[in-house]
Design a protein that fits this description.
With 330 residues, the chain is α/β, with parallel strands linked by helices. The protein is built from 15 helices and nine strands. The strands form two sheets. The chain has a seven-stranded parallel β-sheet with strand order 1-4-5-6-7-8-9. Helix 3 (28-42) runs parallel beside helix 7 (97-110), helix 7 (97-110) packs parallel to helix 10 and helix 14 (275-289) packs parallel to helix 15. The two termini are 23 Å apart.
Length: 330
Amino acid sequence: MRQAGRYLPEYNATRKQAGNFLNLCKTPELACEVTLQPIDRYGFDAAILFSDILTIPDALGLGLHFVEGEGPRFHKKITCEQDVADLPAVDVADSLGYVADAVSLIRRELNGRVPLIGFSGSPWTLACYMISGGSSGDDFLSVRKWLYSRPDLVHSVIDRLTQLVIDYCDMQVQSGAQAIMLFDSWGGLLADSHFEKFSRRSLQTIVDSLRQRHPDTPTIVFVKGGGQWLESIAATGCDAVGCDWTVNLAQARARVGDRVALQGNLDPAVLLGSPEHVAVEVARVIESFGQRGPGVGHVFNLGHGISQFTPLDNVSVLVETVAKASRRLA
């Protein structure tokens, strides 16, 4: 879900060297460095590209910046039909080439140790940030208002973003990413009647396009708060469905069968507890998925991003417990 971050002292040192978060993302050598840091420290089974889901809106000229204590903000936001029309044409190779350079460098530095996962935000999630002007303290109420007043404009933004996400993910795979994860971080805010129209449909288009272009590259779809739509998400044709920590993995597996692997889903707050509780909860997640077998896959992961307050030793306990518990059930 997220490996590098403020819980790691080496990450904080590199971020300080970069000067700010965006410089860290846009400097391939530094992005490579922080991608490798958690692999070197913990020996995870895969590396996750260090970047941010808001690189695409930034490339569209909205002016991404980060405000301490408030999160991402844009200098411009989409407020009307003209703003949608004024969104510029974007060549991802030109505007987001620094991500491709980072992916290529990371693959070279990994030298086959572990595979590399690339990612993108989903069109719906990116639209939420673009219409609200950044992160929102009211569950993107202004964006959801648009759904009931100007759904046509929301569709216009999402359609535009869908093609950009396809091109962006395609660029990452061509540069060396060996799997792609799509983050629909705000899909769970949608009413049941809207999830298909404003989120799943675009996810389906992206998965289909990536499968046509790169049939051997797995795709993972994660919808935070989307546990009620697991069957629908699996039906996109993705290879794995990410589950947040509110989902019961045994029930999820019963619902989707062997159509997809499942990824998840330890509550990140568990890592703030005692090492003993970390071990118990990690083992519980693995055991809840049940016996592994041919055609059945479980990627152990957190059910959302790791907290900056996570004790370093607790991550070591997590990794060790995953290895032991997985061997018992293999």
